[in-house]
Write a structure and sequence with these properties.
single chain, 91 residues, mainly alpha
C-alpha cells in the first residue's frame, strides 16, 4: 500500500495508464498474429494487407510509448522478413 498522498496518486495514475494501454497492446498483438498466420498460409493479397495493418499498429503503439520503439522495429523487421520469404517462394 502507498504510504504518502503522492504515492497514492501515482498508483491511480499508473492504473489508468495501464488500462488505456491494454487495448492498444492487445490490438497490436492480434494484428501481428493475424498477419503471421496469413503469411504462413501464403495468401498473397490478404497477407499484404494484414502485414500493412500490423506495421501500422506497431508504429502507433510505439508512438504512444505503449511498446518500446526498438521492439516495434524488431517485430516489423521479423514480420517483413517472413513476408518476403513467403512471396519469394511463391514466384
Amino acid at each position: 500500500m502507498p504510504k504518502t498522498k503522492t504515492a497514492e496518486k501515482s498508483a491511480r495514475s499508473a492504473a489508468r495508464k495501464a488500462e488505456r494501454n491494454k487495448g492498444i497492446r492487445s490490438f497490436t498483438k492480434s494484428s501481428v498474429t493475424k498477419a503471421e498466420k496469413l503469411v504462413a498460409s501464403k495468401k498473397g493479397g490478404d497477407a499484404k494487407a494484414a502485414v500493412t495493418e500490423a506495421i501500422s499498429a506497431l508504429d502507433r503503439a510505439a508512438k504512444k510509448k505503449v511498446i518500446h520503439p526498438n521492439t516495434a522495429a524488431r517485430k516489423k523487421s521479423r514480420l517483413m522478413k517472413k513476408f518476403n520469404a513467403s512471396t519469394k517462394k511463391a514466384k
